[in-house]
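ingest -> fold -> write
write: protein_1
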Amino acid sequence: MTKPTLPRSSGVLLHPTSLPGPFGVGDLGPAAYRWVETLAAMKQQWWQVLPLGPTGAGDSPYQSYSAFAGNINLLSPELLEHDGLVSSSFWAGQSFPNDHVDFARVTPFKQALLRAAWDAFRGGKAPALKADFEAYQAADAPWLDGYALYMAVRDSLGGRGLTDWPKDLLRRDPVALAAVEKKLAAEVLLHKFGQFLFDRQWAELRSYAADRGVRIMGDAPIFVALDSADVWANPDQFLLDKDRNPTVVAGVPPDYFSADGQHWGNPIYDWGRMADTGYAWWVARAARDLRRVDLVRLDHFRGFRQAWHIPAGEPSAKKGKWVDGPGAKLFEKLRATLGGLPFVAEDLGVITPDVEELRDGLGLPGMKVIQFALDKPQNPYWPHNFVPNSVCYTGTHDNATTVGWWQGLDARQRGYLEAYTGYKVDDPAEPLLRLAWGSVSAVAIAPLQDVLSLGGNTRMNTPGVAEGNWRWRFESYQFWPKAADRLRGLTELYNRLPPGPEPEPAE
């Protein structure tokens, strides 16, 4: 049995966009700092987030314009005001909903906020940031230059997706590139400044968390969006034709979840070419992620062993084939470069023995989701079947909340959980928290919705549904004090406390 690579600990899953605040979306400002303090008070060592990049299709963090960039929707207006870059008069009279993210209003507001901050900076405000901004541009040039130009061109074309760009720009004709770089120079700098501000605010928040014993678990989608700076700036790293269209796209074949499979549409890497470069793009991506977080969840881990290649033009995922990925070769290169493998393998769904062999051979913890149990004692998602080198969840961002999940169970399934726990279930979040925290898994994680026993209407994402996801935000009134006491108590009871003095024994 593989020894745990992580200390016994626990945490909460909450994307920053779900934080409360007055600007229509959670951000990196005061509410984020209060959230870190709340995690520390509950004795939690992990704050798990979703991908932090700029969101593309469907406002999904898993369809980003860049695997390297940050989402400026997370910029805090209040912190920009503290820097002297904007005034509160900028948002005076603005009113946003508190219980969900209205992306159609938030995105243009944050874009205008960035432009106001940039205009102020160019006009001489916050001069102390000048040297830091110049250093940032130099240090991050390998990804930042391509991303900023991509976004500036995309904006100049009215937001057209990459495959609809003029052919000379799409194919990065040197003459066309030189002309557009000159024409859009000011806009390119605007986007670079946005990334500088994002990284600055995020780094300060992460440092604040680290000082309080809270580490960050990030998330890396295995594939990138076709409409992205990654594909535009590195077309040779993907399986594309001469017109920059994918020859095959990613997904998963039909299974008991979906008769047609899942057709994601992402381009697939040319792993042979990547190997020739020493997997330089992936090394740079992983290093970039680990500048922001302490641990990375690798989404769709099985794709590193084999990926489902769907021929371009196929409307569903029914037709395709499994094609080998890089396997251990990529990870050994990452280990040599990074000094370790600070990753969690998302190994949910139908996982074959060769994927398990890759995961275990690398010593990576896998994932266990208790909501996936309930059918038979041999189910690997029952805690009695867990292994220590794993991360256990009550549910994830792709699941219903535990309360919503419970409401969808039939009498037999409810009876099974009650037989397993040994008592009648009133609040289903409580036994799932207890099962997760009491398991042998090194790390236990619950979405905040389960910590607060919130209903199905607070679900973050429904896979296969294109619209209306990623919008949930919690409001301060939902945080009933005994919820924090319950989680802290379970953390003490099941020995998941941060390092420090022993807790006082119960009287």
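write: protein_2
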Amino acid sequence: MRLLFITQKVDINDDVLGVYHEWIRTFAEKVESILVVCLFKGEHDLPDNVKVFSLGKEDKLKIFKKLKYCWNFYKYIWRLRKEYDKVFVHMNTEYIILGGLFWKLWKKKIGLWYAHGGVSLKLRIAEKLSDIIFTSTKSGFRLKSNKTRIVRQGIDVEVFKPQNQISNPKPKIFRIVTVGRISPVKDYETLINAVEIFKKEGEDLEVKIIGGVGLHEQEEYLNNLKKIIKEKKLEDIINFFGPVPYKDLAPYLQRADLFVNMSHTGSLDKVILEAMACGLPILSCNESLSEVLMNYQEKLMYPQRDFIKLAEKIKFIMNLDENEKEKMTKDLRNIVVENHSLNGLVGRIIDVYNQ
């Protein structure tokens, strides 16, 4: 199998998209060759059977940049057309729209990975042009299509794994971590309001928010969050750590006592599974997680924007005895290892292509 892999960025140091560097590496172990076409090419360390081609976003040229991207895209898919037989497009439906008819003419099997709650016109068009739609959960692709294949998520369980308990210099402080871009859809206000309840009750917490901003409105949102935290006198409890390179994320999860997710995206955030793989209890309002948690759904999920219920769930985790906590964290990791490992995901995708 010779694969054309199209993605937004190849950069081992990226805080959000660095994970797909490891997807490519894992695919490379199982296929003859991979040609990667990306919008942005940064630092990478990939096997010899992988070649990376950039559409040029890392260049400083601002004029006619979209025209340049399109030119390079067509140049690569044409020039390399005899070197690939399958196409895998990650999330970016516009590339299916741009290249789909050509790939069909050249008899290339087209696969689209899409795992998000949103349904756009571009997605509807891409579905028509694709041969296969790969998604992580039923809620990750919300169009009715007989092309859909639920292949679950891909977590590197050899990187995201429990570590020996790291000594907490402040053993009375309960450590909470959350990871995600600083955006209103991530609903950090709910966590802030839940933490205020604990401050009023005299409980000692430490909250780390890991994630960066990419847009002007997200910068404004971050400033508003900081203002709320200051007004509630929570500056000594809640800390913004900014973006952390994906390759450096695991230790932040391994040192925490609880991972909290407040996202409203409707898709399965991989960082929730990464936390579970690290043996970390998790709390989430993400509806897609109900397909994953099995017997733990009731214990570990709360209604969206309900900070009172979130605080109750945090208190529940804080009060778990060691035996119950150990069983829970082992079960959560096993869910990821058995159903959502990166190696398993890639194997399932390749099996679907070969059908």
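write: annotation protein_2
The two ends are 12 Å apart (CA to CA).
Confidence is low (pLDDT under 50) at residues 166-170.
pipeline exit 0
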